[in-house]
Amino acid sequence: MQLYHHPMSANSRFIRLLLGEYGVEYDLIHQNPWDREAEFMKLNPAGTLPVLVSESGAAICGIYAICEYIDETRGTMMRERRLMPDYPLDRAEVRRLIDWFCVRLDQDATKTLVRERVFKLDMPRTNGGGAPDSAAMRAARGNVKQHMRYLNWLAGSRNCLSGKSLTAADIAAAASISVLDYMGEVPWADSPQAAEWYQRVKSRPAFRPILEDRIRALTPVSHYADLDF
Amino acid sequence: MQLYHHPMSANSRFIRLLLGEYGVEYDLIHQNPWDREAEFMKLNPAGTLPVLVSESGAAICGIYAICEYIDETRGTMMRERRLMPDYPLDRAEVRRLIDWFCVRLDQDATKTLVRERVFKLDMPRTNGGGAPDSAAMRAARGNVKQHMRYLNWLAGSRNCLSGKSLTAADIAAAASISVLDYMGEVPWADSPQAAEWYQRVKSRPAFRPILEDRIRALTPVSHYADLDF
């Protein structure tokens, strides 16, 4: 299988982590999300990341389709290592949280901060490159604070985000947080329970490649790959 | 079960149609999406529609979680009337299209047009009510045209949107289109194949309550409930 991704795409990281947790082998293909190349648009008319190309060559587009596909073709054979719970209502809670972190947090904050601080440095001016929009960044940072309050509450009231054991909800949340953390955008001091939860999740072997991610335009904050932080 | 909905919420209509196709009995509870009442926010911290309250009283939030829950608890027992295909890759295509219509079309156009033309008439000024933003409406209308081109292409190249038979993808698309059509925002003359497809879907018995929807602020275009149009 092949995964079209960008190292600073939170939703691409979510799928890399899922595949990593299940020990699936695949090739990573770097795709700039602002390049709407005809070849890539043929795979995914939405032009968004991630896209997983299955063994048969079919493109699976977006986290909703990919996450369920991985569960159906890999997760269901993983017994207690499956990242989806057994009961429909428990799965509904995992899916609510995946949506919360992959769609809402992304729209409220991550997407904006990545675009303004990272992508704009690489994007041609004709595609939206140029100076960062400081008003947009300020609004996004306010939203990060609100999201961290909710994450801190979740992490403090449950062992893992959707209940007792690790699920795809933790993976989705940690993927988003890892992108914000790379940029030093997480107010950890105000979120001790979220910090304790994130430390646990980022210590998992599947997280290693994520912590090794480096992009030319921006070096990560010093604690980014530190497992004791 | 109870469904918190608004008649002009495309994603609420999607779930009403799914439940209708499967003959599930439930109560409808009207919820204004701009009222962030404490009671409703307890059910869904995202404050968005739809929310399905299960038989056990648990809240299932958002179309991703609800659509999969209905499939798992109802659809899988429906044999050839199931609205999800049997094979994982076929299901991936259905989910891509659900995401396309419920998230992307909604963000690109439907949400804006409903907010500007309908919700703003009912919303208090302190909550964003007031005069419609004509620039936002113009941009949304441009996006409707693009989406209709894609829908027309899908409807022309496949019998149903995701393949040979009717799936949740058709239901999701028709739910969104029905909201735009209510407002007279669909350029049908440019989309003959989409029109033929929509006429087929809206003739289904499950669609009847949707075609009977009326809101105080805006009467529908004259052809809205016309099955021969």
Automatic annotation (TrEMBL), chains A, B:
InterPro entries named among the record's database cross-references: Glutathione-S-Trfase_C-like, Glutathione-S-Trfase_C_sf, Glutathione_S-Trfase, Glutathione_S-Trfase_N, GST_C, Thioredoxin-like_sf
Residues of the GST C-terminal domain: 87-221
Location of the GST N-terminal domain: 1-78
Domain of life from the UniProt record: Bacteria
UniProt xrefs under PANTHER family: GLUTATHIONE S TRANSFERASE D10, ISOFORM A-RELATED
Subunit field text: Homodimer.
Full protein name: Glutathione S-transferase family protein
Organism: Ahrensia kielensis
Phylogenetic placement of the source organism: Bacteria, Pseudomonadati, Pseudomonadota, Alphaproteobacteria, Hyphomicrobiales
